[in-house]
Write a structure and sequence with these properties.
heterodimer; A: 250 residues; alpha/beta; Rossmann fold; six-stranded mixed sheet; four-stranded antiparallel sheet; 10 strands; 26% strand; globular; B: 2 domains; six-stranded mixed beta barrel; two-stranded antiparallel ribbon; 12 strands; 18% strand
Chain lengths: 250, 405
């Protein structure tokens, strides 16, 4: 199978004042469909920059990036917006749900920016289905302030899933969550990866979170310094059983 | 994104902060209501003036001796002695379309009746004047052609003069008044006519013009001729024909200034309504400034809104919103603010205008195009002042926007 992500010699330089900052100094990486990858590294390692380019939020200074076989490294902003809409599902540390908007409306949001129009009914059906995938179909009409952090992040995952993306990008998805909820969220990622063959890419600085992936990539000073499979992969469902229940925050 | 969705999102965003939305709209509401009210008031006043002047007879033409409109050394109206009763006769007999002609000679004088006196205008005229002005007597009757032929010392009083000399509503027919020490017998009192042609029609005494010429001033010329055309539509051509006739009679060669001035009532009406129109425009302009202030309010709140919703904008961009989508979203929000405010403002202006009419008896009349213009202006204000904040939102970098705290 052709790789979902195929980047070679990726360089990103920022000009800050008169100083050139080289955030990425020639990164090459290939990710096959169905992989579950964790990217780790200290701040300033370039992992965020890499994530932004992989997420088509930014363009590389040089090098190529093939997403699903298409060269996206030279696309203009509007083309990138379409790619983000169709190919990539984002999950953020801060959830980024629209306040005072129901879970259902939050989930269907990406469909509103689709060029091909969908009927309201069909949009809602798909949003409801996505909510069911993350186990929140009974919270469809709840607003973010009526949901716990873990529930909010699950709504965000449903929002990322609704467009059936080729790639799920999660930037510190457990950074705002307690241990048990974090494991739950990683469990959802593992299940989607296992059952649907969804390619998942998680950025984290927590080693135990990285161990839920199948492959861990370490960044340092704008380069990939390590790329190895996870020797003892953790299983979220199993970990949940071991965790004491009282840590759960409703 | 589909237009319906864009509208729905915009209204949702406006509904999220009702207090702020209401206050922002208030700026537009006040601005639009002020424009509508002032235009309605100006327009109403204009209509009233128009009606008043039209009521005085649009087919009236006045010829004044002298001229103050052309170059060189000028003498002013009434200063020329070249207009004669024969000119009036010639107009009557030679100009087609002329209905009535009344030569006039006037002066201002102290008039005395018993122990009362009053300073007023003594208007020497002819028997045609009441016909031209469609003006009736309240007591007695107007003087007749024999009085004119014999330069009789008879007087017809305006109501103001009658009130000042004899008391309100008193029938003074048969009494004697003194003008420049000469006794005049009162033969009639006119009905009240009010303001007309810039003078108080009631504050004057009407006497035969021949009497003014021979008994009061000792002149052979006249000061003016009042003419009525047989129909309003012929007024212009009749006025032109009178001018040609008088130039020939006064031997005025081309290029030389006329020694008379002809004005039609219609011209005067035009000048008056024009002045009122200018006033209305000026008032609407001042009110329009408050519309701009309202627009600045919208711009201000939209800028705040864009800053507050930076993360939302970042998220929308991350999940596929294009710059155009974001621009439209905020622009529609701004235009919705201004348009809803505009509609409420139009309604409010309507009510205020109605109220002015009912309780302050100021004639208010809202021209239909004012509503359209106010609505269009509100939309334009929304687009103009909404564009900058919307563009600011559309130009955000999604990465920066998502990081914004």
């Amino acid at each position: 199978m052709p790789p979902v992500i195929d980047i070679s010699h990726l360089v990103k330089t920022f000009v800050v004042g008169e100083v050139e900052v080289r955030a990425l100094r020639g990164v090459s990486l290939a990710v096959s469909p169905g992989e579950f990858i964790a990217i780790t590294g200290p701040s300033g390692s370039g992992k965020s920059t890499l994530m932004h380019i992989l997420g088509c939020l930014d363009r590389p200074t040089s090098g190529t990036y093939l997403l699903d076989g298409r060269d996206v490294s030279r696309m203009n902003k509007d083309e990138l917006a379409d790619i983000r809409n169709q190919k990539i599902g984002f999950v953020f540390q801060g959830f980024n749900l629209l306040a005072r908007t129901t879970a259902l409306d939050n989930v269907e949001l990406p469909l509103l920016y689709r060029s091909g129009r969908l009927r309201t009914h069909e949009r809602q059906m798909r949003a409801l289905e996505a909510l069911k995938t993350v186990g929140l179909s009974d919270r469809a009409d709840h607003k973010p302030n009526q949901l716990s952090g873990g529930q909010q992040q699950r709504v965000a995952i449903a929002r990322a899933l609704i467009t059936s993306p080729s790639l799920l990008l999660a930037d510190e998805p457990t950074g705002n969550l307690d241990t048990r909820t974090s494991v739950e969220i990683m469990g959802i990622f593992q299940r989607l990866n296992r059952e649907r063959g969804l390619t998942v890419l998680v950025i984290t600085h927590e080693h135990d979170i990285a161990e839920y992936a199948t492959r861990v990539i370490s960044c340092r000073d704008g380069l990939i310094v390590a790329d190895r499979p996870v020797a003892h992969r953790r299983d979220a469902d199993e970990d949940l059983r071991k965790l004491p229940l009282e840590e759960t925050v409703a | 994104m589909s237009p319906t969705m864009t509208f729905r999102i915009a209204f949702k965003a406006l509904g999220r902060n009702k207090m702020r939305t209401g206050l922002t709209m208030l700026g537009m509401i006040i601005g639009v209501a002020a424009v509508i009210t002032l235009v309605a008031m100006g327009n109403g006043a204009q209509t009233v003036i128009e009606d008043q002047i039209k009521g005085a007879g649009t087919n009236m033409i006045t010829v004044n001796a002298g001229n103050f409109t052309s170059g060189g050394v000028r003498m002013g109206v009434g200063a020329s002695s070249s207009l004669t009763p024969e000119d009036a006769d010639a107009i009557r007999s030679q100009v087609p379309g002329v209905q009535f002609v009344a030569p006039g000679a006037n002066l201002r004088s102290q008039v005395v009746a018993g122990n009362q006196n009053w300073y007023t205008r003594v208007q020497g005229t002819d028997v045609d004047l009441p016909l031209i002005r469609s003006w009736a007597t309240r007591h007695g009757s107007f003087f007749d052609t024999r009085d004119v032929a014999s330069a009789a010392k008879v007087a017809v009083l305006g109501t103001t003069v009658n009130t000042q000399l004899f008391g309100e509503g008193v029938d003074s027919v048969g009494h004697v008044i003194r003008i420049r020490s000469q006794p005049f017998r009162v033969v009639g009192v006119m009905v009240s006519k009010g303001q007309g042609m810039g003078e108080d029609m009631d504050d004057q005494i009407l006497v035969p013009y021949t009497t003014v010429q021979k008994k009061l001033l000792g002149i052979t010329f006249i000061h003016n001729i009042t003419v009525s055309a047989s129909s309003a539509s012929q007024t212009g051509s009749t006025a032109d024909a009178i001018a040609i006739l008088l130039r020939a009679r006064h031997k005025i060669v081309p290029g030389q200034d006329d020694d008379f001035m002809i004005r039609t009532l219609e011209e005067m009406a035009d000048i008056r309504t024009q002045a009122m129109g200018t006033m209305t425009t000026l008032l609407a302009g001042i009110a329009g400034v408050s519309l701009i202030v309202g627009g600045i309010g919208i711009m201000n709140i939209m800028l705040v809104s864009v800053t507050e919703r930076t993360r939302e904008i970042g998220l929308r961009m991350a999940i596929g919103a294009k710059a155009r989508d974001v621009l439209l979203q905020f622009l529609v929000e701004a235009v919705a603010l201004s348009l809803i405010g505009g509609v409420i403002g139009i309604a409010l202006g309507f009510f205020i205008a109605q109220g002015m009419e009912r309780w302050m008896s100021w004639p208010a009349k809202i021209p239909p195009n004012a509503v359209a213009i106010a609505f269009g202006f509100a939309a334009a204000v929304g687009v103009f002042f909404g564009f900058y904040p919307a563009r600011k939102a559309a130009r955000l970098d999604p990465i920066e926007a998502l990081r914004y705290e």
